[in-house]
Design goal:
mainly beta, 4-stranded antiparallel beta sheet, 2 helices, 203 residues, globular, 13% helix
C-alpha cells in the first residue's frame, strides 16, 4: 500500500471535476472509464491494473492573500496492480469560483513537460520522478482544462516503481532533468512512456 498512501498525499494539490448544474455519468466498465461530460472522454486501463474504486469529495481552499475561499469538487478513480508497483489515477475537479490554467511544469523532479495533442485535444504532458520512502517511481501525467468557464481540470497519471532497476540508486537527481540521462536510462524512459500510453489510453 506504500505507493497508494503516498499518492493520496501527493495528489491533494492536483485537481479535477464534478458539476452540480448537469447530470454527468462517470463509471468504470471492463477496465474502461466512461465520462459523459466535463470532459466527455473514454479511457482504457491496462488489463494488469485492477479497479480499486472511485471517490468523490469536496475540499475548501483559501485564496492566496485573501480571507476568502472556494470549494473544489473532485471525482477520483484508482487502478493498481496486485503489488501496487503500477498505479493509474484519473480525476476530474471543478472549482466553484475561479478558473484553472495549465503551464509547463518546472522542478527538480521534472524530467520533461510539454504540450501534446490527442484526438484533437491539447494536453499538458509531464514526465516526472518521485521518491516515496526510498521507492523510486517514474510517472507520466496528462492534464487539460475544460468547461466554458475553464473551471474544470482533468488529470490522469500513471506511476511505476523502478527501484529494482540496476542503474538507479533511488535518487531523483539520477533521473531529472532529461538532459543528464545516460543511454540506458533514456532507453528505459522511452520504454516507460510507451508502456504508460498502453496502460492508460484515451480513445
Amino acid at each position: 500500500m506504500y505507493i497508494f498512501k503516498f499518492l493520496l498525499l501527493m495528489i491533494v494539490s492536483i485537481f479535477c471535476f464534478s458539476c452540480a448544474s448537469m447530470q454527468i455519468d462517470r463509471h468504470v466498465e471492463g477496465n474502461i472509464l466512461y465520462s459523459s461530460a466535463m470532459p466527455k472522454i473514454n479511457i482504457k486501463i491496462g488489463s494488469e491494473l485492477i479497479f480499486q474504486g472511485d471517490q468523490k469529495e469536496s475540499t475548501e481552499q483559501a485564496f492566496i492573500n485573501s480571507g476568502d475561499s472556494t470549494y473544489h469538487d473532485t471525482s477520483r478513480f484508482l487502478f493498481t496492480d496486485e503489488l501496487e508497483d503500477k498505479i493509474a489515477l484519473i480525476q476530474m475537479t471543478s472549482i466553484r469560483r475561479g478558473y484553472y490554467l495549465t503551464k509547463k511544469k518546472k522542478g527538480d523532479n521534472i524530467i520533461e513537460s510539454d504540450y501534446k495533442t490527442i484526438l484533437k485535444q491539447k494536453y499538458l504532458e509531464t514526465v516526472f520522478v518521485i521518491n516515496n520512502n526510498g521507492q523510486l517511481c517514474l510517472a507520466r501525467s496528462l492534464e487539460r482544462v475544460v468547461g466554458p468557464s475553464k473551471n474544470v481540470l482533468f488529470y490522469m497519471v500513471y506511476f511505476e516503481n523502478i527501484s529494482d532497476e540496476k542503474y538507479t540508486n533511488d535518487s531523483i537527481s539520477d533521473w531529472a532533468p532529461k538532459l543528464k540521462l545516460n543511454e540506458s536510462q533514456r532507453n528505459f524512459l522511452n520504454n516507460f512512456i510507451e508502456r504508460s500510453m498502453e496502460e492508460i489510453e484515451i480513445f
